[in-house]
């Protein structure tokens, strides 16, 4: 997707500011954002036409652990309070264009698809609490193994809103038994990025048959650790897809919006 | 407003359940709800037509300290997840009917005014954290003096949403200097009922000229204590009034909706 003129990635992308990273993506660089601008919180993006925005806003209000809203833009505006000067249409590495609930295209620049009544939702990302887990010495398996965290569709329903309903999607991180309490304590301090786990232990309690076969992301080694499950922002995409919205624009998984807000701002 | 057939208040209303209290109000009893069903959280009510609900929902998302949403109903439904079997049109002691931003009537039963597209917002009430303050030995002056807490319009703007904008309204409680930290610590644990103070000390810092002349509620004795200011749910009513909404239905100040949810459920 990146063009011949795209800038080269910097030596250490972790040291960039949010604005520095966004400028590279705006210029055409396409990369996943894990580890980029390490001090800055990242966010999931989903933009929908104003006519569908009420249901999505209500859905988020009713399911705050799956869908913690960091910001919601004015209809038609690509600006956000989370990053001065940012343009949400261009400042992510890549976008998915959804029509009638299906991804029809992946693009580097969403401007041609951004209708004048689009409302953008920026949703908290677990990268923020993963940073805190690592700092406390709690291992994060999918980072160790260099893959995307495994996500599973559960048998637990969300609370529907208007046309939107569907099952809760969770992410899973295996945690050593003696560190489960610490993992709960740490993530509980970050309610804006999914907060404390929704389930600790037996996957069957969430209707998950096989941890080795996630619905999204990659399987990780569980070994003798306890599988710990957090509400996941992918819930929103799954629900929006199921409801076959006319148009939605989202980030590509792993290619997030980098804000100017430090991770610590979301710590309670 | 209560009719001749209205039931007598019970011996000790603090011991009622939420459902017990609601049944009395539904039958016509009109009283303020401070101290009623003491274990149950109470909520502010504001209902608006669906056409105005998006702006109000977005306003709440952008101003969560002033407008912490405990529940938002489906359009047209008088039911809430906070209280099984409750009917929001009848189960409060009294209602205000607003047209074009003005109170035109106070009624015991809002049913005749409840259009088929009304959306009700239930907003957290500081009664929940006041209970926690009292349990910790922090005095609550307006309860001691048997008056409504003083509220002030500040010079601090809220973050607007669509047609809605206006100044932040705060409530004030004088706290002894040695207990200010404890008051902050306790209320910070209740983000769904306004959370930690927005300002501690000099009222001029919020543009408040005279603590003795509140804009809403009653003045209380400050003495040598520190004035401590919390974001207040009246912000919403002030903003909705300023925007001259076609129709709104709210509780009458002090006559709240009593939920089935224990105060402790809102403690983080």
UniProtKB/TrEMBL annotation, chains A, B:
EC number: 4.2.1.-
Pfam families for the chain: D-Glu_cyclase
Record bears the keyword Lipid biosynthesis: no
Superkingdom classification of source: Bacteria
Record keywords: Lyase
InterPro entries hit by this protein: D-Glu_cyclase, Putative_hydro-lyase, UPF0317
Family: Belongs to the D-glutamate cyclase family.
UniProt GO molecular function: lyase activity
Name of the protein this chain belongs to: Putative hydro-lyase SAMN05421803_101390
UniProt cross-references to Gene3D superfamilies, sorted A to Z: PSTPO5379-like (3.40.1640.10), PSTPO5379-like domain (3.30.2040.10)
């Amino acid at each position: 997707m990146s063009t011949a003129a795209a800038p080269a990635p910097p030596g250490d992308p972790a040291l960039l500011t949010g604005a520095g990273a966004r400028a590279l993506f705006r210029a055409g660089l396409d990369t996943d954002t894990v580890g980029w601008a390490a001090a800055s919180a990242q966010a999931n993006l989903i933009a929908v036409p104003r006519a569908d925005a009420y249901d999505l806003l209500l859905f988020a209000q009713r399911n705050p652990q799956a869908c913690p809203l960091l910001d919601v833009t004015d209809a038609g505006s690509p600006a956000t309070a989370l990053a001065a000067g940012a343009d949400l249409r261009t400042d992510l590495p890549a976008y998915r264009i959804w029509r009638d609930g299906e991804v029809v295209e992946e693009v580097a620049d969403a401007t041609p698809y951004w209708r004048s009544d689009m409302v953008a939702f920026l949703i908290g990302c677990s990268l923020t609490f993963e940073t805190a887990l690592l700092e406390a010495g709690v291992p994060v398996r999918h980072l160790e193994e260099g893959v995307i965290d495994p996500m599973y569709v559960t048998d637990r329903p969300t609370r529907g809103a208007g046309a939107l309903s569907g099952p809760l999607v969770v992410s899973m991180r295996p945690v050593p038994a003696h560190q489960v309490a610490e993992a709960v304590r740490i993530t509980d301090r970050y309610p804006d990025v999914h907060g404390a786990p929704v389930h600790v232990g037996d996957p069957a309690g969430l209707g998950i048959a096989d941890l080795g076969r996630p619905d999204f992301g990659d399987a990780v080694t569980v070994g003798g650790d306890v599988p710990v499950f957090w509400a996941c922002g992918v819930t929103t995409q799954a629900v929006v897809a199921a409801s076959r919205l006319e148009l939605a624009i989202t980030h590509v998984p792993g290619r997030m919006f980098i804000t100017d807000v430090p991770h610590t701002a979301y710590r309670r």
